[in-house]
Amino acid sequence: MGRKIRFPLKMKNGAEVRTLDELKENFDLESVLGYFTDGRLATWLSDRYYDEKAEAVAALSADMPDLNAKLCEILEVEYQAENDEADVNLIAKRREKIQIISGVTDNKEILDNIDLVAMDQDELFDILDESPEKVYLYGDKFEIPFGKKNISYIGINKPLVVLEKEKGIYLYKENDIKFSNVKFEDTINPYVTSGEKLFLKGNCKEAFPLIKEAAEKGNPRAMYIMARYYQDGYETVTPNKQERNNWCEKAYSYKEPLSMYGYAAWCLNDKQDEQNKLYSQIFNDIKFLAESGDALAQGIIGFIYDFGYGIEKDKIKAVEWYRKSAEQGFATAQNNLGAMYRDGEGVTQDYAEAVEWYRKAAEQGYARAQCNLGYMYENGYGIEQDKTKAVEWYRKAAEQGYARAQNSLGGMCLYGEGVARNRPEAVEWYRKAAEQGYTDAQYRLGSIYYNGSYGISFGSDSSIEKDYTKAVKWLEKAAEQGYAKAQDKLGEMYQFGNGVAQDYEEAIKWYRKAAEQGDKLGQYDLGIMYENGYGVAKDKSMAIEWYRKAAKQGQIDAKAILKKWGITI
Predict the structure, then answer these.
(1) 56: enclosing H helix or E strand
(2) pLDDT tens, 438-455?
(3) Is the pTM of this model over 0.70?
């Protein structure tokens, strides 16, 4: 016969009792009633050969009015009626609850606070009557009262949580009501409209009139999305920075977190200290929305971590939040996640993965992603090189007014890559990008006017005459924005008096700006000025210094001069 395993009874004070004397010493009626209801008290007594007591306990019933007093009499402990609040039915329910909850979690904190676990809505209200600091939710669905403040709701089986109508989750946050491990109904944010849901699914054209209607009725979140339309177009409107800022300014007064972010991002661009201060102020509110499953907020938090706006950069967290948002369909987040994969920031570099995320966003009409996908096709990164498809995607973005795509499409037209060579079309695309302040396009357009045919013969479409006045105009715009190639070209115009009065000192100024940025032509040209004393005293040592810098970058003429002088690089 196997040896009997005798279990102890655990009391409220933590003591594990194995004898009747130990039970008397650590007696706690509530614990004993619990063991009575599940039958283990009688078994415990019988196992220790307290047969008469075991039989007496077994003869009792839970509905006896004097049950508690009789149990105390059997176990030889003093019954204190004035302190008796133990309810055998409540104890039985608690033990049943422990049995259920222990089947889904071994979290000691939850099991030790079983009275704070709500299994249904009525039980939640009963628990809230006691004003707890935290409540555990185990069930399918719970409605959370807005007026009960300073409470943390913790889901055990990720239940559905319903907020009061027209009370957004960020308003719950203001009442210090927190949530973790729960799901939310669509009512999580009262400002989320049917238009926004369409927008996130990629139906941007269909969504636009709905979002516009909501914005015009005073919905600040819809105003923020309107600003996004005028920022990125989405094949729906022509991008317009002034219109974008107008919507941001209208939305800002509502103090809704995302609309405040839009104001910081676009209206405070030239006020960095003020911008970063506002980013810091709204970060926790946006993160709270993001943690609650808000796709737009998740994308924004990713962007804030990505670029360190008001906080320390964290590329890994940026990827984490971009992904959450991207998986819900937010095109901007999809594009940004693609960029992280392309550049290997916060994630292992993977061009094929980048292409997939770019494609998801591009197919929603997001111009930046269309341009990025064109770039991947042009260079064969993560996909078979296909310059025809590159042109196709560049054109989609360019027609939405995206300057980088216009510049890239200009280059494809100029050199006949993926499309028939068409110099006038190239000039027009460069002009569109240049007029938006895109420096590379300004430089290229200026160079075309400077060189006339740009050194390339395309037959009948190559007849663009030199125009130094236009060349100076565009090169100067790019140079003043710090574009090194344009600075060097502008220096050349001043050196030779092309389109401007010849001015060696002005030439040196622009050559130096380019050279100090590491531009090898600027370094070579500055060397020439020192070698010949143009606008500066002759100084062979300075000439050698700049020639050497240029030669180290492979500048052929600088190498030849140093070789002629017998100077090693």
Answers:
(1) helix 51-58
(2) 999 999 999 999 988 644
(3) no
